[in-house]
């Protein structure tokens, strides 16, 4: 379905007086601090986050999955749902496909449909952590690291096939996440597994178009619980460094052991020009994959503080990172959850844009941790939501996307079109 833009405008008109009051007040406060409000709004309008095709339906755990109504049953319907998110938020301008869950049968028709929603195709994602029904060999004991060369070749060929689909759609990057590892001591030769993984990735890297990037994702545990081959940012960086200039580390916020200093990882990878992208989510215990910013909003701000510092550093050679949400919507409406995540990401980005970097650096050089904390928390405690709303308003989005989603009965309309008992493809 598509939302009538006039209906969004009508909702905006109702909320416009309150928005103008809030935005004008914030503008005055920021102007006194010599912060260019218009520049911040323009940057927010430019900031786009990819939505993964697998995140548009209800998630679940190994204990169960409680599907909601009106879930997208096909790639076409998934593109339609991302189009809805982008129409409301004006910040979800790309979709990231997972192969083989979402193989485009008619590439030109899919490209045309995405373009009609003003969507681009972000990184494509391979899958060697599941066995598919028509798969000859099993990944039970690994894929790119497997002791059997035939299994490794099967996984390599799959990644090369994913690249072909992505290239046809206009994507420019491949994300590789491996479940490879071991659950018991002695099960795996760590050195051989890492070397085999590197050898396999080198073959995939050689098969990429010359203008493509590879993002190497890492994870300390799960589904294997004793070891994973690419367990942390160091091992990911080692692989990316050995692969070449077009290989980078990818940071998933849930893929760290408790209390890991993710913002320091971000700063270090950007310093050496090897931060490729981000998968956003939030967690309390592990890879919980819950709504971005729902549990650790200050950590998210600190991460964006380092991201903005790196992106605005003229001496940095790090490419502009790829942004994507990677969450599981077990209880909430998936589209509402994604709208909340988009808001949280942009809030943290906007807050980071307000940091007085000159004053912060002076505090650091003077060994003044108290002042440094005051500067950071001053930006973090600023309610920047009027900036986000203004950016959406100027881009013809909704002032309040979640409220608009509910007022327009979007889920009810989707259920009417697709049915009460639909299950989205993927997990």
From TrEMBL:
Keywords: Isomerase, Manganese, Metal-binding
Xylose isomerase-like TIM barrel domain: residues covered: 104-289
Pfam families noted in UniProt: AP_endonuc_2
Organism, as annotated: Echinicola jeungdonensis
InterPro entries given in the database record: L-rhamnose_isomerase, Xyl_isomerase-like_sf, Xyl_isomerase-like_TIM-brl
Protein name: TIM barrel protein
């Amino acid at each position: 379905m598509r939302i009538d833009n006039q209906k969004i405008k009508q909702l905006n008109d109702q909320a416009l007086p309150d928005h103008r009051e809030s935005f004008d007040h914030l503008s005055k406060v920021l102007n006194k601090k010599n912060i260019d409000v218009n520049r911040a709004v323009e940057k927010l309008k430019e900031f786009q986050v990819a939505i993964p095709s697998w995140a548009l339906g209800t998630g679940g755990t190994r204990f169960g999955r409680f599907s909601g109504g009106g879930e997208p049953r096909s790639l076409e319907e998934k593109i339609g749902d991302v189009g809805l998110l982008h129409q409301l938020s004006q910040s979800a301008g790309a979709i990231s496909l997972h192969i083989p869950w979402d193989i485009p049968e008619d590439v030109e028709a899919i490209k045309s449909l995405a373009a009609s929603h003003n969507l681009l195709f972000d990184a494509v994602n391979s899958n060697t952590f599941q066995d598919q029904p028509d798969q000859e060999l099993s990944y039970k004991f690994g894929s790119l690291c497997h002791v059997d060369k035939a299994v490794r070749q099967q996984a390599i060929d799959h990644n090369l096939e994913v690249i072909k689909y992505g290239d046809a759609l206009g994507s420019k990057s491949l994300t590789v996440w491996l479940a490879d590892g071991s659950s018991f001591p002695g099960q795996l030769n760590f050195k051989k597994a890492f070397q085999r993984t590197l050898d396999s990735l080198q073959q995939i890297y050689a098969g990429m178009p010359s203008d493509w990037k590879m993002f190497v994702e890492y994870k300390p545990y799960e589904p294997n619980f004793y070891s994973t081959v690419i367990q942390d940012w160091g091992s990911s960086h080692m692989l990316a460094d050995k692969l070449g200039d077009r290989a980078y580390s990818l940071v998933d916020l849930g893929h760290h052991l408790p209390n890991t200093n993710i913002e320091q990882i971000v700063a270090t990878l950007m310093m050496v020009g090897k931060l490729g992208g981000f998968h956003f989510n939030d967690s309390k215990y592990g890879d919980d994959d819950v709504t971005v910013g729902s549990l650790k909003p200050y950590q998210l701000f600190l991460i964006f503080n380092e991201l903005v510092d790196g992106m605005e550093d003229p001496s940095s050679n790090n490419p502009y990172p790829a942004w994507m949400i990677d969450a599981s919507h077990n209880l909430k409406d998936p589209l509402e959850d994604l709208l909340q995540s988009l808001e949280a990401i942009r809030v943290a980005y906007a807050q980071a844009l307000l940091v007085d970097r000159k004053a912060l650096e002076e505090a650091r050089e003077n060994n003044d941790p108290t002042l440094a904390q005051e500067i950071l928390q001053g930006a973090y405690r600023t309610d920047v939501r009027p900036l986000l709303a203004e950016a959406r308003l100027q881009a013809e989005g909704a002032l309040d996307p979640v409220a608009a989603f509910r007022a327009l009965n979007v889920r009810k309309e989707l259920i009417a079109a697709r049915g009460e008992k639909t299950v989205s493809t993927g997990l």
